[in-house]
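Page 47, continued from p. 46.
Same chain as before, 232 aa.
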Amino acid sequence: MATKPTARPASTKNRSDRPGRAVASDRNASFTAPGLSAEDGARVIDILQSRLDALVDLSLTLKHIHWNVVGPSFIGVHLMLDPQYAGVQMMVDATAERIATLGGVPSGLPGHVVANRGWDDYGLGRADSQAHLGALDLVYRGVIKSHRESIAKTEDSDPVTQDMLIGQTGELEQYHWFVRSHLEDYAGGLSNAGTSTEIDAAKAAIRKGSTTRNVAATSRNTNGVALARAKR
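Result:
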């Protein structure tokens, strides 16, 4: 007599492991914001994802500098960067949520950022505050320039997104001003002017900073000698 086959045990695998049972997608949704065409929605999502990549990278760069800055101006720069990091993190969240609002799938994963960015990792490790500020000036220049380009690209298609980008750019430019003020001389020149790489900008900032300090020290010594002679 044939034995009755035993019942197949229930699978312990999650349904997502079975072919055709996908539970996640990186594709845009079938909807976008009311009044926005699917084509415009997809285009704005792509613009915002590029901005999200840049902001995620900027936030990590700010923390990296916060941890690795050294020298006489350490504490001032160390503390200056914390609120900048916090502000950029808020921009990251707002940008990602705007992508989701438009039906996109925001990604802040490191692999995605590295694969889609058009720039290399920040070039400095432990370094003097002037060196870091000289290099950070270039970082901010790149982010702000691209933000302004994105503002122009969204003017007609999505003024709501444009408004968000305008607000972010205003904040980024203020942070940039704080950085540049450490590099600016009395005549309005920048110590890293004319440089195009972070390493070159860092070297120029240190070189010019050292020259300025030496001039100031010489001036103090000269004034001190003059005052001593006047008292004789």
